[in-house]
Amino acid sequence: MLSKVHSGAVIGIESTPILVEVNTELPGDPRFITVGLPDTAVKESQDRVASALMNNGFSMPKTRTVVNLSPGSLRKEGPIYDLPIALGVIKSTGQAKLPDLGDFVVAGELSLSGELLPIAGCIALAMQARRYHKKLILPKISAETATFVHDIDIFAASSLREVVQFLSQEIVLPKIDMEFTSGMMQSHFDVDFSEVKGQRTLRRAVEVAVAGGHNLLMVGTPGSGKSMIAKRIPTIMPTPTLEEFLEILSVYSSCQKVNSIGEVKRPFRAPHHTISDVGLLGGGSYPVPGEISLAHNGVLFLDELPEFRRSTLEVLRQPLEDGFIAISRSAAKVQLPCSFMLIAAMNPCPCGFLGDSKRECLCSPGQIQRYRSKISGPLLDRIDLHIDVRPIDTSELRYQHPSENSAAMRERVIEARDVQKRRKQLNNFTNAKMNHGDLRKYCSLNKACELLLTSAIDTLALSARAHDRILKVARTIADLENVENISENHLLEAIHYRSLDRKLF
To answer: Which residue from 116, 128, 169, 261 has the fewest beta carbons nearer than 10 Å?
Structure first.
């Protein structure tokens, strides 16, 4: 008897429908054959399914059995087909009175005892089921994550036996619905900007960067607080909308990095400078998201920026511009989202003490030039703000009165972002995303500002891209003050944030 169960193949962060066909009445030697380009994990499902069936009162067929994963031209990977294969065997052999399963999308990994284990790609599977108007059966933890996808019936099961009893109408599995509480939508952090002593100029630059979604590079001596500031940037970012958080979950669930949802937060990723190109950008023989995609709708922090391989940094240029990365491999071609705020930090020289009033820099001009030239001009052009970070005075370090906290800074950031969204009439829009048409429309300058900007571009020999970045930052500074027109003061501050353009680059 031939049975059919619908499932899905997660490629990147999207899912493609897969039909699992099981035929247990073929002539020939008793064998279990899986076809349809299965990888090793799929082929091994035979042993997991056999043990799970036996431990739940069922048995494997004693005839020649063929499992076909259709379409056969698409490579299948991972253990998510364990549950649909087991259901197909049970239905094909008549060991339980299962109805037609055409209304369900089923996925789940089986333990040897028949318990259901969490799987990767639950968000993608939920979106596939919604697209084709089907119900979804998943392991419990994966089902809880998938409930962020609305307008779909999701059933959570703990074991193979529960699924069989549910489909046989012996028990009722409750539909899983996510209730978004106010506590869940208010992110809680263990760090706060009130813990940062001094650094008023840097704090201002960070506030401008977050308000407009701009990239930021901090240049300062060791111990000046660059990493401390970077770790606190998520605390002043607006809580992600459900749409943004669903995009974040799509990336994380495809890597099976989501176990349970406690609160809605933006990601903060800080890869080490020894990371490979594939680890940072994503890829592999069967493409998976890298750090830039895991930072989607959040922050990517690159500490010790010149220590990263130049080839690794250069491939960041296109994702920084487009907000996505296209990966092409022989097994698959995927497009992954990577709209993130780049926060980078570096020392001013190899020894780190250039400009330090207390310690002498021993680097020659040539060494400093070689160190800084590890960051190319085109990459630097894509970083909107460059800020010098000065060492903290002892008097400021010992000052006991707390600095302004993250909540106050976040309130101003949210107000500025609301201005940007109303202006463009788009949710989740920031000034960093403005195109050339937006610049002409929203960043018009009076004659005095035109002369100031022209003089700065000519004096600093800035590129056309740097010109646009200055305008975007100036627009954000004006939005923080809630004024309609960009003034000379806004432009001067934005030009001040191009510190590296005034030096060796």
So the answer is: 169
